[in-house]
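Repro case for the chain-ordering regression, as requested:
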Amino acid sequence: DSGVTQTPKHLITATGQRVTLRCSPRSGDLSVYWYQQSLDQGLQFLIHYYNGEERAKGNILERFSAQQFPDLHSELNLSSLELGDSALYFCASSEDPPHGGSPLHFGNGTRLTVT
Amino acid sequence: GEDVEQSLFLSVREGDSSVINCTYTDSSSTYLYWYKQEPGAGLQLLTYIFSNMDMKQDQRLTVLLNKKDKHLSLRIADTQTGDSAIYFCAESIGNTGKLIFGQGTTLQVKP
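-- result from build under test --
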């Protein structure tokens, strides 16, 4: 168990809808990262938050947004969903600020299916 | 550019050693990681190495880093059927905390 909790485990929704994925980092970790895993794109970095502030953005679509709250949990919001958004979405957390090099610990992911 | 390459598949017999290879492109990588993903599960951190190290050993796992060639390998000694999984190599990009992952190598262990 990595200590990173993601809910829900599975989500099935229709095109055009909006969903929210939730992540609780390991106790004491200030950094939260979101990744998308799909068959065609592999593991893609979406966004990184550190102590409530956005630190880095990757291949995140404009229809997607995220935030990290004062209690350090994070939410990833996906809107106007398309079939191609079906994927496994991972959250990860780490102790240090970005330059610290501490490893990322991943949750078990949320599997999103858009029908 | 940022790119990590791995071979897609490796098959070994139980008890043999497995060697999974990875090449990366970003010379500013500070840390390199190996993660394991079992079916339906998340990514489990196996080990990682700082870029100024050549080798790291952790029980059955040995990581070798050739920084000049930007080549990383993971050796699993005495491979067991429970080691069957997808193994991902990843490099950290500068000071961002962002990881770039390879496509993953599927390790099949035959009894």
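Ordering looks correct now. The mean pLDDT of chain B is 92.
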